[in-house]
Amino acid sequence: MTPVVARTDPDDERPRRHWPRRLAVSAAFVVCVLGSMIGVGVFGGPPISQAADGLLAADGTHLAPGGGAFSIWSVIYVGLGLYTVWQWWDGDSRGVALPAIASMLLNATWILVVQAGWVFASVVVITALLAVLAVLFVRCRRRRPAGWIEAFVTDGVFGLYLGWVCVAICANIAAALAGAGFDGFGVPQWWAVAVLAVVAAVGVVLAHFGGGRLGVAAALTWGLAWIAVGRTAGEPSSTVVAVAAGTAAGLVALASVFARLRGTPHGGRTRTGQRPAVG
User: Fold this and answer.
1) Which regions span the lipid bilayer (predicted)?
2) CA geometry: angle at 135 spanning 257 and 248, to 5°?
């Protein structure tokens, strides 16, 4: 008589496989939030604007955004919280959990490094963060979201995160160079204009290959516009840099609108092999 072998339903096993990922994402978010609290001085340390001799303050360099720009972090943290909650009810079909975890841990690491006064080390950390967010951007581009909620908490949230970091890394590098005595070859405003041209080019490329992702475009435009505000209403004052930043913001916004009107992103595929709609 053939023995009866009990079968295990794959659907019963799937939730068990999700638990390590869910716990890891949640732990990373907690670390990220604690890092942000440290960054604003909740636990007694200096806020980021005052750490590292004020090199990362709104008046630290020609590429520093005006103070109001940093309110975007509140939106990003709320978005990361929504992503953390959402992934308890859904799987990781787009393969973004690992880079999402890495991005949150790197954010907290960056804050601690800056508060320690290690500005050049912070450039290394934020460069790694940018690379991780770029990987996440590519993964989202390759697979269509299952619905509008997934699109919002992945494309929207991490797109916003990526766009802001594209601006923040420039300010971070400028701060590190200023701390080392670099004066922009004697013409700091024109050196800043050259960097802004590169940021604008990156924004146009991201719009082209990402199908005009709204999160990326919004954060890039926001950061660049606040650099223009900082150079107009604050120190160091520079009309040249303000105009360049405003122009860069406009170019990124126009490129993103054009990309969305054009249609779907290049090369992206759904899980069934069809081209995805723009998220």
Assistant:
1) 23-43, 63-83, 95-113, 119-138, 158-182, 188-207, 214-234, 240-261
2) 35
CA distance 213 to 259: 9
Helix (H, G, I), strand (E, B) or coil at 13: helix
The pLDDT confidence band at residue 147, using thresholds 50, 70 and 90, is confident
Burial 61-89 (b: 16+ CB within 10 A, else e): bbbbbbbebbebbebbbebbeebbebbee
CA atoms lying within 13 Å on the CB side of residue 156: 16
Residue 236: cis peptide before it, omega within 30 degrees of 0: yes
Asked if 210 and 265 touch (Cβ cutoff 8 Å), the reply is yes
- Identify which of 143-147, 255-259, 264-268 has the greatest average pLDDT: 255-259
In the predicted structure, residue 62 carries a pLDDT above the cut 90: yes
Contact call for residues 32 and 108 (beta carbons, < 8 A): yes
pLDDT digits (tens, 9 = 90+) for 168-220: 999 999 999 999 999 888 889 999 999 999 999 999 999 998 888 999 999 99
- The alpha carbon dihedral of 55, 58, 61, 65 has a sign of positive
The pTM is what? 0.87
Domain extents in the chain: 20-262
To the nearest 10°, report the CA torsion of 205, 209, 213, 216: -40
User: What DSSP character marks residue 7?
Assistant: P
270, pLDDT greater than 60: no
- The number of C-alpha atoms within 13 Å of 161 and in the hemisphere containing its C-beta is 31
Output the six-digit token pair for 177.
């160079």
